[in-house]
C-alpha cells in the first residue's frame, strides 16, 4: 500500500497578524463577516505581540460512566467547556494599558498617562484575532472575551516589558464562544 505524500501547501505558519479589541463598555462594534474585510473602527489594535504568537486551548471535562458488567465504559457525559487564547502584548499603549489595568482610571496627561489602579473587575470586550500566512489567513471573532489571567510584568534591562494575558471566550446568546473564517482558495467552493 502506497503512503500518500504530504502536501506542504496545506501547512500553515501564521507569521504575521494582529489582535484587536474594543474599548471597555463598547458593545456595538460591527462583527466581522469574513477573513479579509476591513475591521470595524471600534476595534483597536493592541500593537505588537511577542514572537510566541497566540496559543488556543480548548478543554472540556467528561464524566465517564462505567457499567457493572465487565466494568465497561458505557458513555461519557460532557461537562464544563472552556476556550482560552494566550498571548503577550509587546507594546505599551492606551489599549494595552486599558486591558492590563481593567477597572482602573487611566487619564492622559501632558507627560503621558496616570493610572489610578483598582483591582480588575469584569471587563468583557469584543476581540478579533487575525493570523496571516502569505495570501492565506485565519480570523477569529470573540463576541464576549475577557482577560481572566495576567502574567507577571517584568521590568528588566535584558528584555522588553510585556503583558501576558489569557483571554477566555464566553458563549454568546447563540451558544458560540467564537466565530472563525479561513481565507484559502483551496478550501473555497
From TrEMBL:
It holds the Pfam family Phage_TTP_17. InterPro entries: Bxb1_TTP-like. It comes from the Bacteria. This is Major tail protein. It comes from Paractinoplanes toevensis.
Amino acid at each position: 500500500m502506497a503512503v500518500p505524500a504530504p502536501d506542504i501547501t496545506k501547512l500553515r505558519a501564521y507569521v504575521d497578524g494582529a489582535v484587536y479589541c474594543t474599548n471597555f463598555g463598547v458593545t456595538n462594534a460591527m462583527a466581522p463577516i469574513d477573513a479579509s474585510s476591513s475591521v470595524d473602527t471600534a476595534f483597536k489594535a493592541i500593537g505588537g505581540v511577542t514572537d510566541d504568537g497566540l496559543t488556543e486551548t480548548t478543554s472540556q471535562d467528561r464524566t465517564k460512566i462505567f457499567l457493572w458488567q465487565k466494568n465497561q465504559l458505557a458513555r461519557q457525559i460532557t461537562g464544563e467547556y472552556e476556550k482560552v487564547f494566550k498571548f503577550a502584548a509587546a507594546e505599551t499603549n492606551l489599549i494595552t494599558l486599558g486591558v492590563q489595568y481593567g477597572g482602573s482610571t487611566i487619564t492622559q496627561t501632558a507627560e503621558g498617562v496616570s493610572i489610578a489602579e483598582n483591582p480588575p473587575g469584569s471587563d468583557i470586550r469584543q476581540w478579533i484575532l487575525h493570523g496571516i500566512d502569505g495570501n492565506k489567513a485565519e480570523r477569529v471573532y470573540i463576541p464576549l472575551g475577557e482577560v481572566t489571567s495576567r502574567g507577571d510584568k517584568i521590568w528588566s534591562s535584558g528584555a522588553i516589558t510585556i503583558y501576558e494575558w489569557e483571554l477566555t471566550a464566553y458563549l454568546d446568546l447563540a451558544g458560540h464562544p467564537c466565530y472563525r473564517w479561513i481565507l484559502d482558495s483551496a478550501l473555497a467552493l
